[in-house]
DNA sequence: ACAGGAGTAGACCGATCTGTCTACTATGCG
DNA sequence: CGCATAGTAGACAGATCGGTCTACTCCTGT
C-alpha cells in the first residue's frame, strides 16, 4: 500500500467515523491529509471506492484488536468476560488504536447506505459476519453441547450489538458491563441445565 | 397540525428513513410531496427543524404501535414473548404503519449526527429512553425481585437493540426470534433461582 | 369589504459537492 | 539518457445543496 494512499484512508476514516460519510466532502479529506486531489483520484476511482477501502481498513484494525484481546483471556468463561471487558474499554476510549468511540463504524455506514444490495452495506455485513465467527470460535472452547454453541453465540452477538447501540445512542458508558452480566448469567444457566 | 405540514413530515420520513437524512435534499421532499418550497419554510425554520419534527412523528407512531402490541399480550411471560413477536413482525414488513424495515430510524439518525451534544442525537436518545420505560413497565408485571427488574429490563433492551442491528446490518430476518429465545431462557433462569 | 394567513410556482443566490484537467516537479528504473 | 510513475497546486465544470424572494391565488374571520 502506497504511503499517500494509506494517509488518505486513515484521514478519511477519522472524518467519516466522527461526522458520517455524506457529511464529509472530498476536499475536507484532502486538506486534512495534505494530499493533492489528483493523487486521490489516482488511487481511487471515486468516493465510493475510498469508502470501501476505509471499511476494509477498519475491518482489519478492529478484527485484529478484538482477536488479540480474546486471545489474551484464559480459555473458558473468561473468554466471555474478556469480550465485554474489551468492549468496555472501547466504549470508554481506553483503546487508542480504535479512536474515540462514535458507535460501530459499520452500523453507522449501514445506516447511510441502507439498501441491502448496496455494495458498502454488504461490506458492513461481511465485517459483522467475520466478528461473529471470531466469537463463535471462543464459544467453542466452552465445552457446551453443539446446539448450545449456536444459541450462545447468537446471544453473545445480540448482546454485543445491543451494547454498542446503547453506548452510542444513549451514551450509556456502562452498556458493556450490563451486557457482560447478562451473558454470564446466561452461561451459568446453560451450565446448570447440563449438570 | 396543518395538513401540508403533516404531508411534509410524512414524505420526509419516508425518504429519510430509506435513504438517510444527508442523502435527501429539500427539493426531493418538495417534489415528492407536491408542496411548495415557501410552504416548507413557513412551517419549519430549516432542514434541521424538519428532521426534528420527523423524529417526533416517528417517536409517537412507534411508541403507540409498540404499546398497543404489548397491551394485547396477557400479563406475565407472554409480555416478553409479545415484545419480540412484535419486533419480528416489524423486521419482516408485516406492520404497514411502520413502513418497510430499514433498521431503527433513531439509530440511523444518531449515526449521521454522532456528536452527543447534537440536538437531533439527543432526540434519538430520548426516544430510546421512552421505549425502555415502556419495557420496564412490562417487566414490572412479572413479579420478579426489585433488583431483577432492573437487570432484566436492561437485558431486554440490549437484546432488542441487538436484534434491530442484526436484522438491519446483516439482514437477519430471524433476529427477533433468536432474541426471544434468549430472553425467555434468561427469564427461566431468573425464576429457577428464586424458587 | 378587506386584511391577513396559507398556499403555489419557480427564479435566484451563494456555497459546496464530486470529479476533470492543466502545468509542473521529483524519483526511480532500464 | 529517457520515460513512466507518483506526486503537488489549484483552476475549472456541472450539478446540487439549503435557503430567500417575488408575484400571485385562495380562503376565512372580523
The top level CATH class name of chain A: Mainly Alpha
Structural class of chain A: mainly alpha
Rough outline of chain A? elongated
Rg for CA atoms of chain A: 19 Å
* Oligomer description: homodimer
| The number of domains of chain A | 1
Helix content of chain A: over 70%
Largest sheet of chain A: none
Q: And the CATH topology of chain A? A: Tetracycline Repressor, domain 2
Low-confidence stretches of chain A: none
Task: Output the helix-strand order of chain A.
Answer: HHHHHHHHH
The CATH superfamily of chain A appears as Tetracycline Repressor, domain 2
Q: Could you say what the CATH architecture of chain A is?
A: Orthogonal Bundle
What's the gist of this structure?
The structure is a homodimer of 195-residue chains. Chain A is an all-alpha fold.
Characterization of the model:
The structure is a homodimer of 195-residue chains. Chain A is built from 9 helices and no strands. The N and C termini of chain A lie far apart (53 Å). Chain A is 75% helix and 0% strand. With 195 residues, chain A is mainly alpha-helical. Chain A has helices spanning 3-19, 26-33, 37-43, 47-72, 77-91, 105-112, 119-139, 146-169, 175-194. Chains A and B meet through helix 6, helix 7, helix 8 and helix 9 of A and helix 6, helix 7, helix 8 and helix 9 of B. The structure holds a DNA duplex (30 and 30 nucleotides).
Amino acid at each position: 500500500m502506497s504511503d499517500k494512499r494509506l494517509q488518505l484512508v486513515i484521514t478519511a476514516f477519522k472524518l467519516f467515523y466522527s461526522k458520517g460519510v455524506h457529511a464529509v466532502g472530498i476536499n475536507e479529506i484532502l486538506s486534512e491529509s495534505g494530499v493533492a486531489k489528483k493523487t486521490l483520484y489516482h488511487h481511487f476511482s471515486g468516493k465510493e471506492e475510498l469508502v470501501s477501502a476505509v471499511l476494509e481498513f477498519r475491518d482489519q484494525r478492529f478484527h485484529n484488536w478484538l482477536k488479540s484481546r480474546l486471545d489474551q483471556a484464559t480459555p473458558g468463561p473468561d473468554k466471555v468476560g474478556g469480550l465485554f471487558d474489551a468492549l468496555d474499554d472501547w466504549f470508554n476510549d481506553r483503546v487508542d488504536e480504535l479512536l474515540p468511540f462514535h458507535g460501530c463504524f459499520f452500523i453507522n455506514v449501514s445506516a447511510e447506505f441502507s439498501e441491502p444490495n448496496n455494495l458498502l452495506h454488504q461490506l458492513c455485513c461481511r465485517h459483522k459476519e467475520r466478528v461473529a465467527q471470531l466469537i463463535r470460535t471462543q464459544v467453542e472452547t466452552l465445552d457446551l453441547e453443539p446446539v448450545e454453541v449456536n444459541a450462545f453465540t447468537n446471544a453473545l452477538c445480540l448482546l454485543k450489538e445491543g451494547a454498542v447501540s446503547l453506548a452510542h445512542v444513549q451514551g450509556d458508558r456502562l452498556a458493556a458491563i450490563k451486557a457482560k452480566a447478562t451473558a454470564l448469567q446466561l452461561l451459568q444457566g446453560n451450565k446448570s441445565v447440563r449438570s
